[in-house]
Amino acid sequence: MAAAASKETVMDLFPKLFPNWEARRRWKLTGPESFRVYVDPNVPIDDLVRQAGFDGIKIYSHEPFARPWSEIYPVCHVTPYVRDFEILGLDGSLWFPETDQALADLAQRGYRPADAHEFLSFLAQHPHRLRRQCDITALGATYRDQDLVFNLSLWDRPYRRTYDLYFILARSKGFASGWSSYHRFLATRLEP
Asked: Which pTM was predicted?
């Protein structure tokens, strides 16, 4: 009995010690999976948000923010297209990388992050993935305002059995600027 208990790691004990914490599901993450997504850049952001099952995008920030989505997320493509996307983590050797470091890590591995239309199209077409993954961010849907960086993210809260779409603030330097090992990003392979 004692021998079996000694083999348990902190990660194994975490769900027992903190059963109500959302992180209990984040210790055993699945590997990358591929998802086919149809993207129509002609569909407005607000319509995509509704198609994905959200009332709107919540602003998670202490800073005042009021700008139209069309200004924040300009259309990157002209015609509809189909691409394969994956949900990826960052390089494990990075310690709380900032947004630019996370982008560089994805590019070095041959990926580009999903933009706003791609991210919202993914959420609308693959709703069954929402509760089975951790927080997912679209680093291609990043808006910068001086030292502030806003990212479009899906926040999964298993202890409340809810998931919310957030426009989250992360300063480009300093507090709350880094990503941790449990964050996941929607990305696609760079085209040759």
From this structure: 0.77
